[in-house]
Write a structure and sequence with these properties.
With 159 residues, this protein is mainly α. Helix content is 67%, strand content 0%. The protein is built from 7 helices and no strands. The chain starts with 16 loop residues before the first helix and ends with a helix. 0% of the residues are buried.
């Protein structure tokens, strides 16, 4: 009759090749995960050391670590605005349009030949928010250009 081990035919038996393969794969994944965790711990340790050194250097050189200081300072481009102007704007007593009008008046006094430059450099000023600049931005937008070309091709195909 049968002289084989019936346990070898069971799916749960640890000596079957499939179970040994599964155990080896799980061990390999565990080792990889441990290596990944060790690498992350090492990177975190190095980053903390670097931040500590930056903080110590900042105390010695009296340099500011905070990189967001520029957000809280007054704008330096164009006509320097006084703190009274900014405070009046924040309190709502002076409108932003008044500030812009004052700035434009001061610029026109400073640079009389700036009128011809506005047409030449209209596309280069990305930070302005008037109608001409919005139009320039929409004309330079690559996605809008692609859509215009697709619409032209569709109209040509229709005709």
């Amino acid at each position: 009759m049968g002289s084989g081990d019936l346990n070898m035919k069971k799916s749960w038996h640890p000596q079957t090749l499939a179970n040994q393969r599964r155990v080896a794969e799980v061990k390999l994944k565990a080792e990889e995960e441990a290596q990944r965790a060790a690498k992350l711990q090492k990177e975190l340790r190095e980053e903390r050391q670097r931040e500590e050194m930056d903080r110590l250097n900042a105390t010695v050189t009296k340099k500011s670590i905070n990189k967001l200081d520029w957000m809280y300072s007054a704008p330096v481009i164009g006509v320097p605005q006084t703190s009274d102007d900014l405070e009046a704007y924040l309190l709502g007593t002076k409108d932003a349009k008044d500030l812009i009008r004052d700035k434009e008046a001061a610029e026109s006094v400073k640079q009389p030949d700036a009128k011809w430059k506005s047409g030449l450099f209209a596309f280069s000023n990305r930070n302005a928010n008037n109608e001409r600049d919005e139009m320039a931005k929409s004309l330079e937008d690559p996605l809008a250009e692609i859509k215009r070309r697709e619409q032209a091709a569709a109209m040509q195909a229709m005709a």
